Amino acid sequence: MSSLHGKVVFITGGARGVGAEVARRLRRKGAKLVLTDLDAAPLDDLATELGGDAHVLTVLADVRDLAAMQSAADAAVAHFGGIDIVLANAGIASFGSVLAVDPEAFRRVIDINIMGVFNTVRATLPSIIERRGYVLVVSSLAAFTSAPGLAAYHTSKAGAEYFANTLRLEVAHHGVDVGSAHMSWIDTPLVQDAKADLSAFREMLSKLMPPLNRTTTVEACGAAFVKGIEGRKKRIYCPRWVGAFRWIRPLVSSPLAERDIRTFTPELLPRLDAEAAALGRSVSARIEALEKP
Predict the structure, then answer these.
(1) I want to staple 69 with a disulfide (CB 3.0 to 4.6 A). Which of 46, 103, 123, 150 is the partner?
(2) Which helix H or strand E contains 3, and what residues bound it?
(3) What's the predicted TM-score (pTM) here?
(4) Which of 233, 239, 231 is nearest to 213 (CA)?
């Protein structure tokens, strides 16, 4: 029997992508799930697929709203008796140079990817401490590297990593373990939407040196996450080579390592800005739609 059997796992951004894939894998291992998102239809569909109210509780909640996350955490405790594991997974990206990106889109990325992590952990942590549980914060390879046109995303994911590092020190004496997850490009709606919207993004991705130009499947990422959750890992990497970038971080920002990026940026970054301007948005259409009342 899996060590996750009967455990209550609280997942933000649970309707699609990695969150949904992890939910499916955890449910097969006998876990009970609390899934939060703003996208009601796929959230409801996933809950039905995974067995309904007996095993899955869904909550429409915005991670930027601490009161909403507290309400979701309270509902989880009332429904299942407590929370053993929290996966702070909700995240978005904006596109455009610092001079061109919509300031509100930049703020939205920071609010969701950093404040959303704080709100999620703040709301669930009392139960996690009570059960000597595990917190997994989703960071990224973007915490170790940089790419033009993605300043908000890189900033937020570096912040998420250091939030996890600090939280780990604060709660270790409670018997709570904290991990951070670092992935390269994953074939999620976030990456799919960017590729569909922006030819400059597709070209930039193709020009990155291997293995940075490769996209990994959601299934591979979900498997890595679940393995890491089972082992209460300090860090999870997907693919495994991402871990090397944590150790060579100073070299990644050296002039030699940045040479190729500096070569294509003068041509591709203005194109990226122009394409985003033509779309009239700095985030995907799906994210934009979720923001509308």
Answers:
(1) 123
(2) none
(3) 0.97
(4) 239
